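Regression test case RT-17, inverse folding.

Input:
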């Protein structure tokens, strides 16, 4: 967690320095295009400040009011960042359209382009680093802040291109046209951030994460684990919470049931890329389970094993653990 705080703090300090540089470039050139980029840099500083707060808050231990911890505050941070980027994009579009009809003279464009180019390179390098670290640490806040910086770097690249073209062609309208293109890109990036944050707040299933968990369970599947169903997953910051039902032989005593459930938890946390908390409800098997049960020398088997299948998202998500009767040949074919 300290590493995450340091990364956000670096981004905050860097953003503040680059914001000053961009406003200096605006005062030198009197370019509205540069002004929009400078205004967006304010968003960077505000977003990084809130990201720093969310990292600190999400690290707080669980309490009575927050039994799952405080990790979801990171989704609020990403939502705020996406919303601020969206506002910046809308302002850029409005200002650019206005400047098409009411252009004004600018000066020292090459000097401004050099300053903005340097800020863009710094933001791009820092953004790629934060995205890489965010994915590594499973921090949506750091990854989101990194994508914001990449957006700012792309904006700066478009700005530099516009300033150079205007300098050599003397066509002032290019400033506004390129601003509109960059503004649309900013809005698209903002949409993706807001969409991702809302998905997390609404506990939308992270299929890639759940598929990884199921792959681990399938690869380490024990003969005693007859079935898994009614699986649901929720993500809280850099932790994943899963509850599911596991069907076990009905002649197991409580100690054996606890052992098998603990092994499933142990395997997942050993091999998964995210800390996972399992809540497993143990179900006793019934005769219908025999058709796909792998237990050898079962003392209560009433049917021969006739089918086998891999646990996938479609199966385990259903609250339906057993076939009511012996499966038909068609059903057997679909499950083998």
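Golden output:
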């Amino acid at each position: 967690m300290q590493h995450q705080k340091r990364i956000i703090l670096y981004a905050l300090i860097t953003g503040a320095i680059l914001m000053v540089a961009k406003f200096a470039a605006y005062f030198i050139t009197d370019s509205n295009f540069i002004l929009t980029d400078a205004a967006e840099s304010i968003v960077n500083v505000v977003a990084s400040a809130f990201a720093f707060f969310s990292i600190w808050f999400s690290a707080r231990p669980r309490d009575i009011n927050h039994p799952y911890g405080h990790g979801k505050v990171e989704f609020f941070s990403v939502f705020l960042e996406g919303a601020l980027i969206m506002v910046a994009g809308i302002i850029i579009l409005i200002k650019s359209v206005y400047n098409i009809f009411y252009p004004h003279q600018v000066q020292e464009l090459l000097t401004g382009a050099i300053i903005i180019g340097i800020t863009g390179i710094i933001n791009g390098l820092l953004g790629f680093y934060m995205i890489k670290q965010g994915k590594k640490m499973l921090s949506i806040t750091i990854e989101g802040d990194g994508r914001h910086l990449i957006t700012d770097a792309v904006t700066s690249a478009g700005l530099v291109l516009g300033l150079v073209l205007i300098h050599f062609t003397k066509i002032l309208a290019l400033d506004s046209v390129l601003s509109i293109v960059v503004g649309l890109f900013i809005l698209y990036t903002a949409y993706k951030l807001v969409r991702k944050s809302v998905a997390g707040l609404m506990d939308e299933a992270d299929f890639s994460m759940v598929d990884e968990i199921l792959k681990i369970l399938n690869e380490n599947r024990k003969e005693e684990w007859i079935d898994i169903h009614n699986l649901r997953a929720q993500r809280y910051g850099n932790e994943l919470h899963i509850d599911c039902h596991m069907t076990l032989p009905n002649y197991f005593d409580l100690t054996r049931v606890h052992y098998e459930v603990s092994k499933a938890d142990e395997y997942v946390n050993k091999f998964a890329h995210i800390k996972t908390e399992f809540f497993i409800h143990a179900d006793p098997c019934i005769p219908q389970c025999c058709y796909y049960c792998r237990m050898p020398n079962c003392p209560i088997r009433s049917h021969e094993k006739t089918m086998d299948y891999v646990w996938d998202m479609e199966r385990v998500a259903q609250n339906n653990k057993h076939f009511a009767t012996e499966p038909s040949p068609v059903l057997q074919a679909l499950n083998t």
